[in-house]
Amino acid sequence: MSAASAKAGGHLRHLDVSGCAEISHGGVIRVLRANLNLTRLVMDEGEGETFRLRLRPHHVVALAHTLGGRGGAGSSAPSSLPPPPPPSPRLDVSVEVAGNRELEELREMLIEASGGNNSTPTPASSAPPHLRVGGAEVRIVALTVSLLFVKAVYVVQGVGADADENDGEEEEGGAAGGGNEAGDPMEETNGRTASHLADIVNILGVRGLRRINFGEGALRCPRSAEIILESVGEACASLRELRVDGGEVLQTGSTRRWFSAALSACRATLRRLTVTRAHLLPPGNAYTSRGGGFTLPDTLEQVHFEMPVRPEFFERFISQAVGARALSLARRPSGGGRSSRSASAAARWDPKFTVELAALTVAALRDPALCRVTHLDLSNMDLEGCEQLEVILNGVAARPGPCVLKVLSLAGNECRSIGGASVSGDGKLADALTKALLAHAGTLTHLDVGALPRVAMHAALECAPRLANLQTLDLSGSQLNLTSTRSTAAANAPDTIGRALSTALADPTCRLKRLILVHCSLVAHDLREIGGGVLKCKTLVAVDLSYNNNIGDEGCRELARWIRAGSEGGTGAKRIRGKMKAGGGGLARLELECCGIGDAGAKCLAVAVAANLNLMRLDLALNINIGKSGRAALASASSGRSGIWHQLTTEDTPWAGSGSDNDDDDEDRDEEDNSYLTDDDGYFASHRVSRPSPWSLD
């Protein structure tokens, strides 16, 4: 993005970074400063869960005033072209609110920008499409809210008791977790918070709000959740994605009914639904009674319920969920690195995903009248045996009709007992996985089998060359070589995962383009073991080895070989496109985030980078041992390629804050500025409330 901005020579007028997970606030701010004619900025998070460009309310105000001040201003860059008519400054953004203070700030801004009408939702046909803030048109297309409702506490004669103790099913006319007496400060606070969030939803919903993410603490109070969900159903006529916390919204019959009503009201536009912590559904048979459950819209394209393991709920849910093209029952990765798929460090819970639930899943997947699933994610299911996966995979293999499965993720299902010993049935699981993969060999493009039992991973790697359209293989969370836990003789056995992977990559029929080996405990020996396959694979252009802390400087010598192998042919981006069209490989992207690399390793990589201009992206973030000399070598080797890491960013040193991407300018900052700064510029620190936002571009 920075390189493209520089080529624009200050003439850039429109910037759209929607869905860009690897672009930071600082990068956008630099582009804005370099292009004084830029008056149209779009930062819509799209479908990316890792989107980092959400703005706090005070950032929106600062940026709107900045762009508003540019309306009608001419470009400062010389140009022989006649000046265009002054564009109307416009800003499309995703906003994040954490806590009541920011909620109040956002509400006040929206009420002022909308003319003060917040009591009832304005009809979409009569509401202006944009809000006017600081001379710019502002549209908030995505809203994330969290940490609004504190844990309700009952105070009886000076003794406190958690309200969560009364979180069972509500009585007729009552509400679980409610029960506070009239005038109770907690009840009043929660009611006011709910009313204010409903005001925000009412204002934004009729102005094109497309995405709402209710994070932890946003719907915690059942009575407040009803108010908020009612506003969503009434005002959000253009909503495309909704994310909620199942531990909050599915706890009582009333919240489930309001949730169902909101889904029904938004069904014309709603396409993606995510319910985290769905495993926290309370026990009972209320889900099958009249009004006790809820109905999924048949227009959904993507459904993610995190482990909805209550049998009384699951049968009805799965028969509706398979109507979406993308179905996920996965729990979120936990432990390890940001991108880790390893489930070993994650918490365990009861009840488990049973064989009976697996059979219900298969029945739904095999029903041609109901099922449209092409993307199936069963990652990190905390299984204690292989039988559940075996049942599902046999069902996938025997699925009637044309083979349409494109994405299959089974990562993190190590199938181990609580004691850590392998359970029986690995061989049957391997056979079931082989049948499932070959049944969909003509359509699978993405396969994630990291941290499965070794026999199952071997089966997947043997099948990989026969999957004609497979482009991405993810083995994250797996240990490719067992030298750290087994004897040297066992590590040198021919059936190690590393050797099997190398064999699969070296197969002439392999068409893999992207290999992901995040958090695999890799060392230099492992890289040499799989290196033969990497160098022989004709199509491989991207490898991700992040969060393998023991690669170190020694491993960089092998990685330099991988980089140099793609140094032949053409120039720049044309070179990459030409090699891919011809079926050729050569790394264009190598991710080495947090791999224990120091100056020696960085310099070794720099020599290879200079020799291979095909490499457009080299990520070395969070390798804190790379000093000035290593960064200087990489900067010299980059030859203007902005994707080659060569300077510290806030991701490497978060204590540097969002105002600087360089650790060498400490002498220009006062003592206070050297202390910790979060990405919101210390907004919650009382002594920095008046600190100007970096989005003001001052």
UniProtKB/TrEMBL annotation:
Keyword terms, alphabetized: GTPase activation, Leucine-rich repeat, Repeat
Top-level division of the source organism's lineage: Eukaryota
Places the protein is found: Cytoplasm, Cytoskeleton, Cilium axoneme
Chain intervals with Pro residues compositional bias: 80-89
Main location: cytoplasm
GO molecular function: GTPase activator activity; small GTPase binding
Biological processes annotated in GO: nucleocytoplasmic transport
GO CC terms: axoneme; cytosol; nucleus; perinuclear region of cytoplasm
Region entry Disordered, spans: 67-90, 163-190, 647-698
Record field: compositional bias (Acidic residues): 163-173, 661-682
Protein's UniProt name: Uncharacterized protein
Taxon lineage: Eukaryota, Viridiplantae, Chlorophyta, Mamiellophyceae, Mamiellales
